[in-house]
Amino acid sequence: MRAPVPGAQLVSRIGLVLRTVSEHPEGISSTALAHATGLTRPTAHRLLTSLAAEGFVDHDRPAGRWLLGPELYLLGSLAADRYDITALARQSVELLARETGESAFLSARRGTETVCLLREEGSFPLRSFVLAEGVRFPLGVASAGLAILSYLPEEEADAYLADHAVALEARWGSAHAEPALRERMATTRETGYAVNPALILEGSWGMGAAVFDAAGRPAWALSLTGVESRYRPDRRPELGRLLLAEAHALTKRLTTTPRGF
Predict the structure, then answer these.
(1) CATH 3.30.450.40 region(s) of the chain?
(2) Neighbours of 46 (CB within 10 A)
(3) 3-state DSSP call for residue 55?
(4) Is the dihedral of CA 229, 233, 239, 240 positive or negative?
(5) Where is the IclR-ED domain (predicted)?
(6) What does the buried/exposed string (b/e) look like for 107-119 if buried means 16 or more CB atoms within 10 Å of the residue's CB?
């Protein structure tokens, strides 16, 4: 058996804390963070205090909330040339919002999750607020994560479901049990785009299409969300066509444009 890596649990906890803080742009209290991460409040507070001392988080004392700190901004700026694709993706996200009237998004795969990187509001006045910059979902949950999971190599998708299907069902309901997920994955591969029929929030629908990296792996997704009445059966194929066209165009830009842009 592989020997445990010293300090690995601490690093995992720090990553969990930073990701949780990132999901709350308005800030989060240490109590709420402890609840969200499953850490005890003293442990959460100790980690936050240590991270603040290094500049990775910032403490708004009057509000009693923790936010991402300036050191993360500096590190992120240095990593942006390699990982940030929003400059290349923005025109696709804006076009989707303009052409459909729906809220449009770019999400990236990060391990077993997707994280929203970019949001553009459409013109239709009724909107869904399930997704926003920084929000994360497990693969298979929400249309972006379903689109990416559906196009992973078969062995990788099988391994993911073997490890996570029980937890997905427990957290997100029977619609995310393995048989139901596999059925939606098969449908996604048939049509090319994923559909989330209000499985996260009642009345909020989403559709997504995978964007591929130079190795042909699904690494990002473009998606649309809106109210159920805007995703009628007769309209979905047109929305899917637009998503696939922009996903293909973005894939082409990503695979032909040198990083550093």
Answers:
(1) 84-256
(2) 13
(3) coil
(4) positive
(5) 71-256
(6) bbbeeebbbbbbb
Q: Is the torsion defined by CA of 127, 129, 130, 132 positive or negative?
A: positive
Strand partners, 223: 105, 208
How many C-beta neighbours within 10 Å does residue 100 have?
A: 21
How far apart are alpha carbons 215 and 184 in whole angstroms? 25
Is 84-256 assigned to CATH 1.10.3210.10?
A: no
Separation CA 143–CA 239 (nearest Å): 13
Kindly write down the DSSP assignment for every residue of 148-186, as one continuous string: HHHTS-HHHHHHHHHHHHHHHHHHH-GGGSHHHHHHHHH
Going through 10-100 in order, the beta strands assigned E by DSSP cover 57-60, 65-68
Q: For the whole model, what pTM was predicted?
A: 0.72
The helix/strand/coil state of 200 is coil
Amino acid at 104: A
CA distance linking residue 153 with residue 161, whole number of Å: 12
Summary mean pLDDT of the chain: 89
Q: How do beta strands 65-68 and 103-110 pair? A: unpaired
Backbone angles phi, psi at 188, to 5 degrees: -60, -40
Give span(s): CATH 1.10.10.10, the chain.
8-74
CATH class for the domain made up of 8-74: mainly alpha
Using the predicted structure, report yes or no on whether residue 177 has a pLDDT greater than 90.
yes
For residue 3, is pLDDT > 80?
A: no
Contact 230, 124 (CB under 8 A): yes
